[in-house]
Amino acid sequence: MMTHHDPPLTRLPMEVLDEIVSYLSVEYFVSLRLTCKTVERALFRQFSRRFFETRQCLFPNKYNLQTLLDISTHPALSEALQHVIIATDRSIFSNTGGIEHITHLPKSFPWWISRHLKHLKPSGDFGDGFGAAGEDRPLLSEIFSNLPNLKTIQLRDFKGPSDTTRVRVPDFPELSWPASEAYARDEFNDHMFAVVLASLADANARPEHLGVIFSGFTFCLRNLAFYIPSQLEPSIGAAVFGLKHLDLSLNLDSEDHPANNALFVQRFLVMTPNLVYLRLRFPHLQSIFHTHHLLAWLGRHAQSHLHEQPVQGRVQWMTQRVGLTPSLNEPDPVGLPHLQQLVLENFIGIPETMMNLVTKFGPSLRTLKLDNTAYLVDLHNKFEHRVNIWTPLLKHIAEQCDLREWSIGCPRISLPHERRVISTYTIDLLAGGSGVVSYKGDDAKAMLKATADDISFSWVYSITAARNGGA
Question: Is residue 227 within 8 Å of 191, Cβ to Cβ?
């Protein structure tokens, strides 16, 4: 019980005290907590929110996971923890055996280390993702089950003294090279994503935000990362059903160009019908093949059927050449009736795909962003025709959507080369002297219409070779 000797600070209502300390810097906040035990106890809730609402841990790292487990078992701190960031630790080599899966080494790699590589192998059994041996899944499951207010799970590159976009050998810290040069495939992040999904299902967790943010095409999730065994579909489906915010970094590259290179991604999106925000990040300067099957499927209405009669003539030839043959091997499209924000990073596609997307999501869509670069591939015209296919698309977007914010990063037109199969013409957009056009405000719709009339192209092309062919 407080006495008349208690200082005024200790007699303040909790709400007033919380409001005061919310303006303090970390230094002053910590100093205030050291005033006395009464103040320290009064500020504990604010302390928990400020320092434990968001926590980051490295994966795989048993010490980091153990620390996160300790926080999750604390009666007060577990209530405060809402956002968990799991960062990749790409120090994955140890002196424990042979290595066969490195396809080639950088030219700058020291010749004298080649003998040592025969005694290296990845540390940790990554296995098949869901069935991988190790303690990561049960530990994460226990952590997630201990967090009643868990809202966000984010997977990303670790940014620290040792950038994890590089491969390092722990016993030889002077040896380091870009992982994208050393691997044809990178299964590490695929495994991590699979383990996180399974752990959320085991814990009966219901997060609202799921983000996968990786740099470089080598580290983005592949289609196979979204494969979910049938026995786990009900539990994982329940875990992601309530997602409101989804951010994915995807690399849908495929050497054999299957009929549908995004089948498992599509099946995963079917499990997330309540999304309000969707961001899809694609690798820079990939071909239209890498994005088409996913985006074309996303833009179709539920129970819609593909055209049975293919297009004819030059368009048919172009469509087949760049890998856009319709696929019958796909699930029924997801509806996403609540989608308000759609962000496509490094978008490349035909105008019909984008028109279908905005027609489908137009009633609810308030933000549309085509970040970094945006390519429209023209299959109908030749370069000498100089047809501006962006203007009608932007007008269509303005008519279909009641936007409050929009942006188009470095808009371009790409035309498949007539003779050089793996090349495309690229024409840059000129809009007010800038390669980026954007706007935010109540009159965003009117500004988009005005921009559609103002844009012009240089029609000075560059020939770009696309990965694995295509446009």
Answer: no
pTM for this entry: 0.79
Do 252 and 223 meet the contact criterion of CB atoms below 8 Å apart?
yes
CA dihedral 467, 157, 79, 277 (to 10 degrees): -30
CA distances from 210 to 129, 271, 330 (A): 18, 13, 23
Residue 124 pLDDT more than 90? no
Cross-strand pairs, 407: 369, 438
Q: Nearest CA to 455 among 375, 394, 368, 365? A: 394
Each domain of the chain, given as residue ranges in start order, spans 1-51, 53-238, 268-284+313-323+330-471
Residue 387 half-sphere exposure toward CB, CA atoms < 13 A: 15
**319-347 tens-digit pLDDT:** 555 555 556 678 888 999 999 999 999 88
Provide the token pair at 278.
């969707």
Backbone φ, ψ for residue 272 (5° rounding):
-120, 65
Q: What is the arithmetic mean of pLDDT over 296-311?
A: 65
Bridging pattern class, strands 462-465 and 423-430: antiparallel
H-run or E-run covering 353: helix 351-361
The whole-number pLDDT of residue 250 equals 93
Q: In Å, how far are 97, 164, 181 from 176, measured between CA atoms?
A: 19, 10, 11
